[in-house]
Protein backbone atom coordinates (compact mmCIF):
# COMPACT_ATOMS: atom_id res chain seq x y z
CA UNK A 1 0.00 0.00 0.00
CA UNK A 2 2.75 2.40 1.04
CA UNK A 3 4.74 1.51 -2.08
CA UNK A 4 1.65 2.16 -4.20
CA UNK A 5 1.23 5.62 -2.62
CA UNK A 6 4.88 6.41 -3.23
CA UNK A 7 4.55 5.40 -6.84
CA UNK A 8 1.60 7.62 -7.54
CA UNK A 9 3.48 10.47 -5.95
CA UNK A 10 5.70 10.51 -8.98
CA UNK A 11 5.15 11.13 -12.64
CA UNK A 12 7.33 11.58 -15.71
CA UNK A 13 7.95 15.00 -17.18
CA UNK A 14 9.92 16.10 -20.17
CA UNK A 15 13.06 18.07 -19.34
CA UNK A 16 13.99 18.69 -22.96
CA UNK A 17 16.50 15.82 -23.02
CA UNK A 18 13.99 13.06 -22.52
CA UNK A 19 11.67 11.86 -19.80
CA UNK A 20 12.37 12.53 -16.13
CA UNK A 21 10.52 11.12 -13.12
CA UNK A 22 9.51 13.95 -10.77
CA UNK A 23 7.11 14.47 -7.92
CA UNK A 24 3.52 14.77 -9.15
CA UNK A 25 1.90 18.22 -9.07
CA UNK A 26 5.07 20.18 -8.21
CA UNK A 27 5.94 23.09 -10.45
CA UNK A 28 9.40 22.85 -11.94
CA UNK A 29 10.75 25.87 -10.08
CA UNK A 30 9.96 24.23 -6.69
CA UNK A 31 11.31 20.72 -7.40
CA UNK A 32 14.49 21.47 -5.45
CA UNK A 33 12.40 21.72 -2.27
CA UNK A 34 11.20 18.13 -2.65
CA UNK A 35 14.26 15.77 -2.22
CA UNK A 36 13.18 12.14 -1.59
CA UNK A 37 16.30 11.36 0.49
CA UNK A 38 15.60 14.18 2.94
CA UNK A 39 12.74 15.02 5.29
CA UNK A 40 10.33 17.54 3.76
CA UNK A 41 9.90 20.99 5.27
CA UNK A 42 6.56 22.63 4.50
CA UNK A 43 7.12 25.58 2.12
CA UNK A 44 5.87 27.99 4.82
CA UNK A 45 8.54 26.50 7.16
CA UNK A 46 5.90 25.54 9.74
CA UNK A 47 6.64 21.77 9.93
CA UNK A 48 9.17 19.14 8.84
CA UNK A 49 7.86 15.68 8.06
CA UNK A 50 9.41 12.45 6.67
CA UNK A 51 9.49 12.56 2.87
CA UNK A 52 7.05 9.64 2.76
CA UNK A 53 4.38 12.10 4.03
CA UNK A 54 4.56 13.98 0.72
CA UNK A 55 1.63 13.17 -1.56
CA UNK A 56 0.45 10.46 0.91
CA UNK A 57 -3.13 11.82 0.58
CA UNK A 58 -3.03 13.25 4.12
CA UNK A 59 -2.65 16.98 4.68
CA UNK A 60 0.21 17.72 7.11
CA UNK A 61 1.31 21.24 6.14
CA UNK A 62 -0.89 24.26 6.89
CA UNK A 63 -0.03 25.67 3.46
CA UNK A 64 -0.93 22.37 1.75
CA UNK A 65 2.58 22.08 0.29
CA UNK A 66 3.04 18.42 1.34
CA UNK A 67 0.13 17.40 -0.96
CA UNK A 68 0.79 19.04 -4.36
CA UNK A 69 -0.38 15.95 -6.26
CA UNK A 70 -3.50 14.98 -4.27
CA UNK A 71 -6.70 16.68 -3.21
CA UNK A 72 -6.01 16.14 0.49
CA UNK A 73 -5.33 19.82 1.27
CA UNK A 74 -8.01 22.41 0.49
CA UNK A 75 -5.40 25.11 -0.12
CA UNK A 76 -2.71 23.27 -2.09
CA UNK A 77 -1.73 23.91 -5.71
CA UNK A 78 -1.40 21.27 -8.41
CA UNK A 79 0.90 21.91 -11.35
CA UNK A 80 -0.38 20.72 -14.74
CA UNK A 81 2.62 20.11 -16.89
CA UNK A 82 0.52 20.46 -20.09
CA UNK A 83 3.25 19.15 -22.30
CA UNK A 84 3.45 21.13 -25.55
CA UNK A 85 1.45 23.96 -24.03
CA UNK A 86 1.79 26.28 -21.02
CA UNK A 87 2.18 24.68 -17.60
CA UNK A 88 -0.60 25.91 -15.29
CA UNK A 89 -1.44 25.81 -11.59
CA UNK A 90 -4.86 24.66 -10.43
CA UNK A 91 -6.21 24.28 -6.84
CA UNK A 92 -5.08 20.85 -5.69
CA UNK A 93 -8.60 19.88 -4.56
CA UNK A 94 -9.50 19.80 -8.30
CA UNK A 95 -7.28 16.70 -8.52
CA UNK A 96 -9.29 13.55 -9.08
CA UNK A 97 -12.67 15.35 -9.00
CA UNK A 98 -13.77 13.77 -12.27
CA UNK A 99 -13.37 17.00 -14.27
CA UNK A 100 -10.46 17.46 -16.67
CA UNK A 101 -8.83 20.73 -15.64
CA UNK A 102 -5.36 20.29 -17.14
CA UNK A 103 -5.23 20.13 -20.93
CA UNK A 104 -3.02 17.02 -20.59
CA UNK A 105 -5.54 15.43 -18.15
CA UNK A 106 -2.80 14.96 -15.52
CA UNK A 107 -5.15 16.09 -12.72
CA UNK A 108 -7.31 13.00 -13.26
CA UNK A 109 -4.52 10.36 -13.08
CA UNK A 110 -6.29 8.43 -10.33
CA UNK A 111 -9.76 8.35 -11.83
CA UNK A 112 -11.20 6.13 -14.48
CA UNK A 113 -12.42 9.00 -16.63
CA UNK A 114 -10.53 9.51 -19.82
CA UNK A 115 -9.34 13.06 -20.50
CA UNK A 116 -8.64 14.05 -24.09
CA UNK A 117 -5.32 15.82 -24.43
CA UNK A 118 -6.34 19.30 -25.70
CA UNK A 119 -2.90 20.84 -25.25
CA UNK A 120 -2.09 20.70 -28.95
CA UNK A 121 -5.36 22.44 -29.86
CA UNK A 122 -4.76 25.11 -27.23
CA UNK A 123 -1.23 25.56 -28.50
CA UNK A 124 -2.57 26.13 -31.99
CA UNK A 125 -5.07 28.71 -30.75
CA UNK A 126 -2.46 30.40 -28.61
CA UNK A 127 -0.09 30.47 -31.53
CA UNK A 128 -2.75 31.98 -33.81
CA UNK A 129 -3.43 34.75 -31.28
CA UNK A 130 0.29 35.34 -30.85
CA UNK A 131 0.87 35.44 -34.57
CA UNK A 132 -2.02 37.85 -35.12
CA UNK A 133 -0.60 40.05 -32.37
CA UNK A 134 2.83 39.89 -33.87
CA UNK A 135 1.48 40.70 -37.34
CA UNK A 136 -0.47 43.63 -35.94
CA UNK A 137 2.57 45.01 -34.15
CA UNK A 138 4.66 44.48 -37.27
CA UNK A 139 2.19 46.44 -39.40
CA UNK A 140 1.84 49.03 -36.64
CA UNK A 141 5.58 49.50 -36.38
CA UNK A 142 5.80 50.44 -40.05
CA UNK A 143 3.18 53.15 -39.47
CA UNK A 144 4.76 54.13 -36.17
CA UNK A 145 7.96 54.90 -38.04
CA UNK A 146 6.02 57.19 -40.40
CA UNK A 147 4.40 58.97 -37.46
CA UNK A 148 7.70 59.34 -35.65
CA UNK A 149 9.27 60.81 -38.79
CA UNK A 150 6.32 63.20 -38.99
CA UNK A 151 6.60 64.09 -35.31
CA UNK A 152 10.31 64.82 -35.75
CA UNK A 153 9.51 67.10 -38.67
CA UNK A 154 6.72 68.80 -36.72
CA UNK A 155 8.92 69.24 -33.66
CA UNK A 156 11.74 70.77 -35.64
CA UNK A 157 9.28 72.91 -37.64
CA UNK A 158 7.79 74.15 -34.40
CA UNK A 159 11.22 74.88 -33.02
CA UNK A 160 12.09 76.78 -36.18
CA UNK A 161 8.82 78.65 -35.96
CA UNK A 162 9.59 79.50 -32.35
CA UNK A 163 13.08 80.72 -33.24
CA UNK A 164 11.57 82.83 -35.99
CA UNK A 165 9.02 84.29 -33.61
CA UNK A 166 11.78 85.26 -31.21
CA UNK A 167 13.81 86.75 -34.05
CA UNK A 168 10.74 88.65 -35.31
CA UNK A 169 10.07 89.90 -31.81
CA UNK A 170 13.60 91.13 -31.51
CA UNK A 171 13.41 92.93 -34.87
CA UNK A 172 10.05 94.43 -34.05
CA UNK A 173 11.25 95.68 -30.70
CA UNK A 174 14.12 97.47 -32.45
CA UNK A 175 11.67 98.76 -35.05
CA UNK A 176 9.40 99.99 -32.26
CA UNK A 177 12.24 102.04 -30.75
CA UNK A 178 12.83 103.62 -34.15
CA UNK A 179 9.12 104.29 -34.70
CA UNK A 180 8.81 105.77 -31.24
CA UNK A 181 11.65 108.15 -32.00
CA UNK A 182 10.00 109.17 -35.28
CA UNK A 183 6.67 109.59 -33.51
CA UNK A 184 8.20 111.81 -30.87
CA UNK A 185 9.99 113.85 -33.54
CA UNK A 186 6.73 114.33 -35.44
CA UNK A 187 4.75 115.17 -32.33
CA UNK A 188 6.97 118.04 -31.20
CA UNK A 189 6.14 120.40 -34.13
CA UNK A 190 2.58 119.12 -34.17
CA UNK A 191 2.14 120.00 -30.51
CA UNK A 192 3.69 123.44 -30.99
CA UNK A 193 1.45 124.18 -33.98
CA UNK A 194 -1.66 123.05 -32.14
CA UNK A 195 -0.72 125.15 -29.15
CA UNK A 196 -0.24 128.15 -31.41
CA UNK A 197 -3.65 127.58 -33.00
CA UNK A 198 -5.27 127.17 -29.62
CA UNK A 199 -3.72 130.35 -28.30
CA UNK A 200 -4.80 132.32 -31.34
CA UNK A 201 -8.29 130.95 -31.08
CA UNK A 202 -8.54 131.83 -27.40
CA UNK A 203 -7.29 135.36 -28.07
CA UNK A 204 -9.83 135.75 -30.83
CA UNK A 205 -12.58 134.47 -28.66
CA UNK A 206 -11.68 136.88 -25.86
CA UNK A 207 -11.62 139.75 -28.36
CA UNK A 208 -14.97 138.77 -29.75
CA UNK A 209 -16.45 138.57 -26.27
CA UNK A 210 -15.32 142.14 -25.58
CA UNK A 211 -16.79 143.33 -28.84
CA UNK A 212 -20.04 141.55 -28.38
CA UNK A 213 -20.38 143.06 -24.92
CA UNK A 214 -19.68 146.51 -26.38
CA UNK A 215 -22.29 145.86 -29.05
CA UNK A 216 -24.74 144.77 -26.40
CA UNK A 217 -24.25 147.98 -24.40
CA UNK A 218 -24.75 150.04 -27.55
CA UNK A 219 -27.92 148.16 -28.41
CA UNK A 220 -29.38 148.67 -24.93
CA UNK A 221 -28.40 152.33 -24.99
CA UNK A 222 -30.14 152.84 -28.36
CA UNK A 223 -33.14 150.89 -27.15
CA UNK A 224 -33.47 153.12 -24.07
CA UNK A 225 -32.79 156.39 -25.91
CA UNK A 226 -36.23 156.52 -27.45
CA UNK A 227 -36.00 160.24 -28.37
CA UNK A 228 -32.66 159.62 -30.03
CA UNK A 229 -30.92 162.55 -28.33
CA UNK A 230 -27.89 160.39 -27.45
CA UNK A 231 -28.81 160.58 -23.77
CA UNK A 232 -30.73 158.18 -21.59
CA UNK A 233 -32.94 160.20 -19.28
CA UNK A 234 -34.99 159.42 -16.16
CA UNK A 235 -38.31 159.21 -18.01
CA UNK A 236 -36.81 156.95 -20.70
CA UNK A 237 -35.45 154.51 -18.10
CA UNK A 238 -38.58 154.75 -15.96
CA UNK A 239 -40.51 152.93 -18.74
CA UNK A 240 -38.50 149.81 -17.90
CA UNK A 241 -40.29 148.83 -14.74
CA UNK A 242 -38.51 145.47 -14.76
CA UNK A 243 -35.50 147.39 -13.44
CA UNK A 244 -37.37 148.34 -10.27
CA UNK A 245 -35.74 146.36 -7.49
CA UNK A 246 -38.68 146.85 -5.20
CA UNK A 247 -41.43 145.54 -7.47
CA UNK A 248 -44.19 146.19 -4.92
CA UNK A 249 -44.24 150.01 -5.32
CA UNK A 250 -44.08 152.10 -8.43
CA UNK A 251 -40.72 152.74 -10.13
CA UNK A 252 -40.12 156.21 -8.72
CA UNK A 253 -38.06 159.03 -10.20
CA UNK A 254 -35.72 158.75 -7.21
CA UNK A 255 -35.17 155.08 -7.80
CA UNK A 256 -34.45 155.70 -11.48
CA UNK A 257 -32.08 158.54 -10.62
CA UNK A 258 -30.18 156.30 -8.20
CA UNK A 259 -29.60 153.91 -11.10
CA UNK A 260 -28.55 156.63 -13.55
CA UNK A 261 -26.54 158.56 -10.97
CA UNK A 262 -27.93 161.81 -12.52
CA UNK A 263 -30.91 163.02 -14.56
CA UNK A 264 -29.49 161.70 -17.80
CA UNK A 265 -26.36 159.88 -19.05
CA UNK A 266 -24.53 159.85 -22.34
CA UNK A 267 -23.17 156.60 -23.85
CA UNK A 268 -19.84 156.70 -22.03
CA UNK A 269 -21.52 157.35 -18.66
CA UNK A 270 -24.07 154.64 -19.42
CA UNK A 271 -21.25 152.24 -20.20
CA UNK A 272 -19.29 153.12 -17.06
CA UNK A 273 -22.08 153.47 -14.46
CA UNK A 274 -25.43 152.10 -15.59
CA UNK A 275 -24.93 149.00 -17.72
CA UNK A 276 -23.64 146.70 -14.97
CA UNK A 277 -26.58 147.69 -12.72
CA UNK A 278 -29.28 146.86 -15.23
CA UNK A 279 -27.86 144.19 -17.52
CA UNK A 280 -29.30 141.28 -15.58
CA UNK A 281 -32.89 142.53 -15.27
CA UNK A 282 -33.13 144.55 -18.45
CA UNK A 283 -35.65 143.51 -21.04
CA UNK A 284 -35.72 145.09 -24.43
CA UNK A 285 -38.66 147.27 -25.47
CA UNK A 286 -41.65 145.28 -26.71
CA UNK A 287 -41.56 146.93 -30.12
CA UNK A 288 -37.93 147.42 -30.95
CA UNK A 289 -36.97 150.45 -32.88
CA UNK A 290 -34.50 150.17 -35.69
CA UNK A 291 -31.08 150.65 -34.11
CA UNK A 292 -29.46 153.84 -35.20
CA UNK A 293 -26.04 152.56 -34.41
CA UNK A 294 -24.76 150.25 -37.10
CA UNK A 295 -23.57 146.92 -35.68
CA UNK A 296 -19.84 147.05 -35.50
CA UNK A 297 -18.48 144.21 -37.57
CA UNK A 298 -16.21 141.92 -35.65
CA UNK A 299 -12.70 141.80 -37.00
CA UNK A 300 -11.89 138.89 -39.18
CA UNK A 301 -9.81 136.53 -37.02
CA UNK A 302 -6.58 135.61 -38.63
CA UNK A 303 -6.94 131.97 -37.60
CA UNK A 304 -10.02 131.60 -39.83
CA UNK A 305 -8.78 133.48 -42.81
CA UNK A 306 -7.28 130.48 -44.45
CA UNK A 307 -10.47 128.49 -44.50
CA UNK A 308 -13.32 130.99 -44.82
CA UNK A 309 -14.02 132.99 -47.93
CA UNK A 310 -14.04 136.67 -46.95
CA UNK A 311 -17.21 137.30 -48.98
CA UNK A 312 -19.19 135.18 -46.53
CA UNK A 313 -17.76 137.10 -43.59
CA UNK A 314 -18.63 140.43 -45.16
CA UNK A 315 -22.15 139.36 -46.01
CA UNK A 316 -22.98 138.22 -42.51
CA UNK A 317 -21.49 141.07 -40.50
CA UNK A 318 -20.96 139.97 -36.93
CA UNK A 319 -22.46 136.61 -37.69
CA UNK A 320 -19.14 135.77 -39.20
CA UNK A 321 -18.05 134.00 -36.03
CA UNK A 322 -20.90 131.55 -36.45
CA UNK A 323 -20.09 130.93 -40.04
CA UNK A 324 -16.40 130.64 -39.62
CA UNK A 325 -16.47 128.31 -36.63
CA UNK A 326 -18.68 125.96 -38.57
CA UNK A 327 -16.09 124.19 -40.57
CA UNK A 328 -17.05 120.98 -42.31
CA UNK A 329 -16.25 119.09 -39.14
CA UNK A 330 -18.73 121.08 -37.10
CA UNK A 331 -21.87 120.61 -39.17
CA UNK A 332 -24.19 120.09 -36.21
CA UNK A 333 -23.06 123.31 -34.73
CA UNK A 334 -23.91 125.07 -37.93
CA UNK A 335 -27.49 123.92 -37.74
CA UNK A 336 -27.73 125.24 -34.20
CA UNK A 337 -26.37 128.53 -35.40
CA UNK A 338 -28.97 128.75 -38.10
CA UNK A 339 -31.63 128.33 -35.46
CA UNK A 340 -30.03 131.14 -33.52
CA UNK A 341 -30.35 133.32 -36.55
CA UNK A 342 -34.06 132.51 -36.88
CA UNK A 343 -34.57 133.64 -33.29
CA UNK A 344 -32.86 136.87 -34.11
CA UNK A 345 -35.59 137.85 -36.55
CA UNK A 346 -38.31 137.31 -33.98
CA UNK A 347 -36.72 138.93 -30.93
CA UNK A 348 -34.92 142.14 -30.23
CA UNK A 349 -31.41 143.04 -31.17
CA UNK A 350 -30.39 142.91 -27.52
CA UNK A 351 -31.27 139.28 -27.16
CA UNK A 352 -29.38 138.64 -30.38
CA UNK A 353 -26.25 140.00 -28.78
CA UNK A 354 -26.79 137.88 -25.71
CA UNK A 355 -27.28 134.81 -27.85
CA UNK A 356 -24.21 135.75 -29.75
CA UNK A 357 -22.21 136.02 -26.57
CA UNK A 358 -23.50 132.66 -25.37
CA UNK A 359 -22.53 131.19 -28.66
CA UNK A 360 -19.01 132.50 -28.42
CA UNK A 361 -18.64 130.73 -25.09
CA UNK A 362 -20.03 127.49 -26.41
CA UNK A 363 -18.28 127.53 -29.76
CA UNK A 364 -15.92 124.75 -30.65
CA UNK A 365 -12.39 125.24 -31.80
CA UNK A 366 -12.13 125.93 -35.49
CA UNK A 367 -10.25 123.84 -38.01
CA UNK A 368 -6.51 124.08 -37.89
CA UNK A 369 -4.63 125.99 -40.52
CA UNK A 370 -3.17 124.07 -43.45
CA UNK A 371 0.33 124.01 -42.07
CA UNK A 372 -0.88 122.52 -38.79
CA UNK A 373 -3.03 120.03 -40.68
CA UNK A 374 0.01 118.79 -42.53
CA UNK A 375 1.96 118.44 -39.26
CA UNK A 376 -0.96 116.51 -37.71
CA UNK A 377 -1.08 114.26 -40.76
CA UNK A 378 2.65 113.53 -40.45
CA UNK A 379 2.33 112.86 -36.71
CA UNK A 380 -0.77 110.68 -37.28
CA UNK A 381 1.15 108.65 -39.80
CA UNK A 382 4.04 108.22 -37.33
CA UNK A 383 1.60 107.27 -34.57
CA UNK A 384 -0.11 104.72 -36.83
CA UNK A 385 3.17 103.12 -37.78
CA UNK A 386 4.20 103.00 -34.12
CA UNK A 387 0.86 101.46 -33.11
CA UNK A 388 0.99 98.89 -35.91
CA UNK A 389 4.38 97.67 -34.74
CA UNK A 390 3.16 97.66 -31.15
CA UNK A 391 0.14 95.54 -32.15
CA UNK A 392 2.38 93.08 -34.01
CA UNK A 393 4.55 92.77 -30.89
CA UNK A 394 1.49 91.97 -28.78
CA UNK A 395 0.43 89.26 -31.25
CA UNK A 396 3.90 87.70 -31.43
CA UNK A 397 4.24 87.72 -27.64
CA UNK A 398 0.89 85.95 -27.44
CA UNK A 399 2.06 83.31 -29.94
CA UNK A 400 5.31 82.82 -28.00
CA UNK A 401 3.32 82.41 -24.81
CA UNK A 402 1.02 79.82 -26.44
CA UNK A 403 4.03 78.00 -27.82
CA UNK A 404 5.70 77.85 -24.41
CA UNK A 405 2.50 76.60 -22.85
CA UNK A 406 2.30 73.85 -25.48
CA UNK A 407 5.94 72.95 -24.97
CA UNK A 408 5.18 72.16 -21.33
CA UNK A 409 2.90 69.30 -22.46
CA UNK A 410 4.59 65.89 -22.35
CA UNK A 411 3.98 64.56 -25.85
CA UNK A 412 5.26 61.09 -25.09
CA UNK A 413 8.68 59.52 -25.60
CA UNK A 414 10.70 61.78 -27.95
CA UNK A 415 7.58 63.91 -28.53
CA UNK A 416 6.18 61.04 -30.62
CA UNK A 417 2.61 62.19 -30.08
CA UNK A 418 3.27 65.70 -31.49
CA UNK A 419 1.32 65.01 -34.72
CA UNK A 420 -1.91 64.41 -32.82
CA UNK A 421 -1.57 67.33 -30.44
CA UNK A 422 -5.02 68.97 -30.48
CA UNK A 423 -6.32 66.42 -33.02
CA UNK A 424 -9.85 65.23 -32.15
CA UNK A 425 -11.26 61.69 -32.40
CA UNK A 426 -14.90 60.68 -32.11
CA UNK A 427 -16.56 57.50 -30.93
CA UNK A 428 -20.28 56.97 -31.52
CA UNK A 429 -22.39 54.89 -29.21
CA UNK A 430 -26.14 54.63 -28.72
CA UNK A 431 -26.76 57.72 -26.63
CA UNK A 432 -23.64 59.86 -27.01
CA UNK A 433 -20.76 60.76 -29.26
CA UNK A 434 -17.56 60.88 -27.24
CA UNK A 435 -14.90 63.27 -28.51
CA UNK A 436 -11.34 63.46 -27.35
CA UNK A 437 -9.06 66.32 -28.45
CA UNK A 438 -5.63 65.04 -27.60
CA UNK A 439 -3.82 66.75 -24.74
CA UNK A 440 -6.77 69.12 -24.35
CA UNK A 441 -10.28 67.95 -23.54
CA UNK A 442 -12.69 65.06 -23.72
CA UNK A 443 -16.43 65.56 -24.20
CA UNK A 444 -19.63 63.59 -24.07
CA UNK A 445 -21.96 65.00 -26.72
CA UNK A 446 -25.57 63.92 -26.66
CA UNK A 447 -26.83 62.54 -29.99
CA UNK A 448 -28.40 65.42 -31.87
CA UNK A 449 -25.81 67.73 -30.35
CA UNK A 450 -28.28 69.39 -27.97
CA UNK A 451 -25.89 69.27 -25.03
CA UNK A 452 -22.31 68.45 -24.30
CA UNK A 453 -20.47 67.72 -21.11
CA UNK A 454 -16.74 67.95 -20.55
CA UNK A 455 -15.62 64.66 -19.06
CA UNK A 456 -12.05 65.78 -18.47
CA UNK A 457 -9.19 68.13 -19.26
CA UNK A 458 -5.73 66.84 -20.11
CA UNK A 459 -3.93 65.98 -16.91
CA UNK A 460 -0.99 63.60 -17.37
CA UNK A 461 0.32 60.25 -18.51
CA UNK A 462 -0.86 57.73 -15.97
CA UNK A 463 0.40 54.29 -16.96
CA UNK A 464 2.22 52.06 -14.46
CA UNK A 465 5.73 53.04 -13.39
CA UNK A 466 7.44 50.84 -15.97
CA UNK A 467 5.01 51.83 -18.76
CA UNK A 468 4.00 55.41 -18.06
CA UNK A 469 2.91 56.10 -21.65
CA UNK A 470 0.35 53.29 -21.66
CA UNK A 471 -2.43 55.46 -20.21
CA UNK A 472 -3.60 59.05 -20.33
CA UNK A 473 -5.54 60.83 -17.62
CA UNK A 474 -8.08 63.60 -18.30
CA UNK A 475 -9.53 65.02 -15.10
CA UNK A 476 -11.58 67.86 -13.59
CA UNK A 477 -14.49 67.51 -15.99
CA UNK A 478 -18.01 68.75 -15.26
CA UNK A 479 -19.08 67.81 -11.77
CA UNK A 480 -21.28 64.76 -11.56
CA UNK A 481 -24.69 65.26 -9.92
CA UNK A 482 -24.01 64.77 -6.20
CA UNK A 483 -20.65 63.35 -7.07
CA UNK A 484 -17.05 64.05 -8.08
CA UNK A 485 -15.87 65.86 -11.22
CA UNK A 486 -16.01 63.62 -14.28
CA UNK A 487 -12.73 62.00 -15.31
CA UNK A 488 -11.38 59.79 -18.03
CA UNK A 489 -8.62 57.23 -18.42
CA UNK A 490 -7.48 56.44 -21.95
CA UNK A 491 -5.62 53.19 -22.55
CA UNK A 492 -3.42 53.13 -25.62
CA UNK A 493 -3.40 49.98 -27.70
CA UNK A 494 -1.42 48.95 -30.75
CA UNK A 495 -3.42 49.48 -33.95
CA UNK A 496 -2.65 50.32 -37.53
CA UNK A 497 -4.95 53.37 -37.52
CA UNK A 498 -5.39 56.09 -34.93
CA UNK A 499 -8.91 55.75 -33.58
CA UNK A 500 -11.05 55.37 -30.50
CA UNK A 501 -12.10 51.74 -30.39
CA UNK A 502 -14.02 51.59 -27.13
CA UNK A 503 -15.65 53.91 -24.58
CA UNK A 504 -17.20 52.87 -21.28
CA UNK A 505 -18.42 54.30 -18.02
CA UNK A 506 -17.47 51.49 -15.59
CA UNK A 507 -18.46 53.58 -12.61
CA UNK A 508 -20.63 56.69 -12.55
CA UNK A 509 -18.87 59.67 -14.17
CA UNK A 510 -15.60 57.75 -14.48
CA UNK A 511 -15.03 57.01 -18.13
CA UNK A 512 -12.55 54.81 -19.96
CA UNK A 513 -11.52 54.88 -23.59
CA UNK A 514 -9.32 52.68 -25.70
CA UNK A 515 -7.31 54.57 -28.25
CA UNK A 516 -5.63 52.57 -30.97
CA UNK A 517 -2.45 53.96 -32.38
CA UNK A 518 0.62 52.62 -34.15
CA UNK A 519 2.63 54.53 -31.52
CA UNK A 520 1.61 51.90 -28.94
CA UNK A 521 3.00 49.06 -31.06
CA UNK A 522 6.01 47.23 -29.67
CA UNK A 523 9.05 46.54 -31.81
CA UNK A 524 10.06 43.53 -29.65
CA UNK A 525 6.71 41.86 -30.31
CA UNK A 526 6.89 42.75 -34.00
CA UNK A 527 10.35 41.23 -34.29
CA UNK A 528 9.48 37.85 -32.70
CA UNK A 529 10.07 35.15 -35.28
CA UNK A 530 7.29 32.88 -36.44
CA UNK A 531 8.06 29.18 -35.90
CA UNK A 532 5.16 27.18 -37.31
CA UNK A 533 4.35 24.27 -35.06
CA UNK A 534 6.54 25.54 -32.26
CA UNK A 535 5.56 27.84 -29.41
CA UNK A 536 8.12 29.59 -27.27
CA UNK A 537 6.71 29.85 -23.77
C1 LIG B 1 -25.22 62.21 -17.61
C2 LIG B 1 -24.07 61.52 -18.32
C3 LIG B 1 -23.76 60.17 -17.70
C4 LIG B 1 -23.58 60.31 -16.20
C5 LIG B 1 -24.75 61.02 -15.58
C6 LIG B 1 -24.49 61.28 -14.11
O1 LIG B 1 -26.38 61.54 -17.85
O2 LIG B 1 -22.97 62.35 -18.21
O3 LIG B 1 -22.61 59.62 -18.30
O4 LIG B 1 -23.45 59.05 -15.60
O5 LIG B 1 -24.95 62.27 -16.22
O6 LIG B 1 -25.57 61.91 -13.51
TrEMBL record:
A cellular-component GO term for this protein: glucosidase II complex
Chain positions covered by the region annotation Disordered: 282-356
Gene Ontology process terms (BP): N-glycan processing
MRH domain residues: 422-523
Classification via SUPFAM superfamilies: EF-hand, LDL receptor-like module, Mannose 6-phosphate receptor domain
Pfam families in the record: PRKCSH-like, PRKCSH_1
Keywords on record: Coiled coil, Disulfide bond, Endoplasmic reticulum, Signal
Composition bias, Low complexity: 284-293
Origin superkingdom: Eukaryota
GO molecular function: calcium ion binding
Coiled-coil spans in chain: 155-189, 379-406
Residues of the EF-hand domain: 212-247
Protein name: Glucosidase 2 subunit beta
Species annotation: Rotaria magnacalcarata
Amino acid sequence: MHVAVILCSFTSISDGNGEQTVLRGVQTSLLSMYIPSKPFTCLDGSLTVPFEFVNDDYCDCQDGSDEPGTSACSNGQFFCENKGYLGTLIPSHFVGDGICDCCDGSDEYETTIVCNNTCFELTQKFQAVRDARRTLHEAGIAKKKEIIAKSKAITSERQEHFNKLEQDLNNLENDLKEKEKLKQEAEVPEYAAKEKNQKLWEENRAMQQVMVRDQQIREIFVDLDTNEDSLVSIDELQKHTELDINQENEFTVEEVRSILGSDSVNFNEFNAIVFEKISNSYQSSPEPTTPTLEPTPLPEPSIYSATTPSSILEKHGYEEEEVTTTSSSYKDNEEENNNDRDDYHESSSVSTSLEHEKHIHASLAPEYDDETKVLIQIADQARNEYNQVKEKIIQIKRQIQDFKKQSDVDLGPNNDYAPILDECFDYDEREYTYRICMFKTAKQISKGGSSQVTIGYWDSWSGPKDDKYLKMKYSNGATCWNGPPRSLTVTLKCGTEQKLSDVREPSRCEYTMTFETPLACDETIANRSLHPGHVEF
